[in-house]
Design brief:
508 residues, alpha/beta, 2 domains, two-stranded antiparallel sheet, 22 helices, 13 strands, TraG-D_C
């Protein structure tokens, strides 16, 4: 169809978003598709019902409306819970399970360098995923995202990874974790570059050189290439079609002049940082088996988005540890990037796609998640993040202004549900979001002649005090399986359009 046909299919994308996603229980207020694209945050103590009631209600609403979804599992039992939701909502045919037993593979480097569309093959896309892995590793192991000194080493690591990928591509070699590691392990140090050029000059010189010297140089060079993948790749480039180009000169200068001449201590730190980033892909495990080789088209984020599929990424953190964090980071970053490239006008029956993450603190990236959430609405991505309290997010935001960074992310999650909680910081934050109002405060006192004096004054008090969150129902039999939460969203009015919040009940 031509241009006019496409406009007829989508006369107004914004009008599509006016549809109701779900009615908030015990209220007359609806959450529209547009509302859900502004992001949803659910907090609550362990056992508060935040996942089993609130998360379930929202997740099933998305499934019933035919949304595609990407779901990350933090706990082992999570996948079975989603299996039940999907079956109840009649979406079994749309389900794709990505776990250790599924047989699916997602070589993220191959995907980023070979995918369709603008930007395909850009080294920076693959580089960003690897740097996100470095960030997540630091968060998982130390609880922060680095200080200023670590940022210096991050930039050095970024250059090393970028130049390694570029070197392999110039040699027309496969860009894989395994090949990248071989490059770094065998790269030139100290006088290696000088020795390489001397041997090359002697072995292939047209000048009058003693034949024995020339033959020995050729033999030494051949043996070196046989034992060093780096030398082999350098030789491919120098004898290849790209030699002499500006890009080739920059890459060779880095490896033969810059990196080779960095001090031993500095080089060792940079290489060790790289090894720490890729080591998990070398030994036996899910990263080597399912993220280093092979690429199933079913897992391509574009296929999930356009096909409205439901992908369950089932590598529980509690079971696979850091490997699970890496697995989630790899796919989440690729998915977020694909969403940013999404062309809604080219889709038939476009719908939002959900990004659903329980135990969000285990998957949060301090930088990329904040940037993504700021523009998620334009890509029609409905993010639902569940965590116990906001201190969980402070903890993973690094040493530099962690609260400001966390609040920046939280501020872009407009729809908020606060279940029962004893976390003071979260409760006070929720109370401040709802705000304060003027109330009449009455007081009485007795004078020296036992005269009773009464007075009234106006005082500015919380609409909902922080301690109130400790009294909300937490489900189970003792609460008749009812879970209470305070719901708040800027621009929404509740209780006969007179209040900016509501205390609502979900069935567990």
């Amino acid at each position: 169809m031509g241009l006019f046909g496409r406009n007829k299919e989508h006369p107004n994308l914004e009008k599509i978003l006016d549809q109701e996603l779900y009615r908030v229980p015990t209220t007359d207020t609806s959450i529209s598709w547009a509302d859900c694209l502004e992001g949803t945050l659910i907090t609550g103590a362990t056992g508060s019902g935040k996942t089993s009631a609130i998360g379930k209600y929202i997740g099933q609403a998305m499934l019933k409306k035919g949304f595609g979804m990407v779901i990350f599992c933090a706990k082992k039992e999570e996948r079975e819970r989603w299996d039940a939701y999907i079956e109840d909502c009649g979406r079994t045919e749309d389900k794709i399970l990505f776990n250790k037993s599924s047989g699916f593979k997602f070589n993220f480097l191959k995907y980023e360098l070979e995918r369709a569309g603008d930007g395909s093959g850009d080294v920076l896309n693959a580089l960003n995923i690897l740097m996100n892995l470095n960030e997540q590793s630091r968060i998982y192991q130390s609880g922060n995202s680095g200080n200023k000194d670590e940022r210096f080493w991050d930039e050095s690591l970024r250059r090393l990874i970028s130049r390694t990928i570029a070197l392999l591509r110039l040699a027309d070699e496969e860009v894989s974790i395994y090949n990248m590691r071989k490059i770094v392990v065998n790269c030139f140090r100290d006088e290696d570059a000088k020795r390489y050029f001397n041997l090359t000059k002697l072995a292939f010189s047209n000048e009058q050189i003693d034949k024995r010297v020339k033959d020995q140089a050729f033999q030494d060079l051949t043996e070196w290439k046989a034992s060093s993948y780096f030398v082999e790749v350098i030789d491919m480039i120098i004898s290849g079609p790209y030699y002499g180009s500006e890009e080739t000169d920059i890459i060779l200068d880095y490896w033969l002049k810059e990196f080779a001449n960095i001090s031993e201590k500095t080089t060792s730190i940079i290489i060790e940082s790289f090894m720490g980033c890729v080591e998990a892909f070398i030994g036996n495990g899910i990263l080597k088996e399912q993220f280093s080789q092979g690429l199933n088209k079913e897992l391509a984020p574009e296929s999930i988005i356009k096909g409205k599929k439901i992908l369950i990424v089932d590598f529980p953190v509690k079971e696979f540890g850091l490997s699970a964090i890496y697995a989630a980071t790899i796919y989440k970053t690729a998915f977020q990037n694909a969403c940013e490239r999404r062309n809604l006008t080219a889709e038939v029956d476009p719908k939002p796609i959900g990004l659903f993450i329980d135990e969000y603190q285990s998957f949060c990236n301090p930088v990329s998640d904040s940037l993504f959430q700021a523009t998620a609405r334009s890509s029609w991505v409905a993010c639902v993040y569940i965590t116990q309290n906001i201190n969980n997010l402070f903890f993973v935001m690094g040493d530099s202004q962690p609260q400001a960074r966390a609040y920046s992310l939280l501020g872009n999650l407009n729809l908020k549900y606060f279940a029962n909680n004893a976390d003071i910081t979260t409760n006070e934050w929720a109370s401040n979001l709802v705000g304060k109002h003027w109330i009449d405060v009455y007081s009485s006192s007795y004078g020296k002649d036992d005269d009773l004096t009464k007075s009234k004054s106006m005082q500015f008090h919380y609409k909902v005090t922080p301690d109130h969150f400790t009294t909300l129902k937490t489900g189970r039999k003792e609460n008749n399986n009812k879970v209470q939460a305070l719901v708040f969203k800027p621009g929404k009015l509740w209780d006969d359009k007179d209040s900016n919040f509501a205390i609502v009940e979900f069935k567990q």
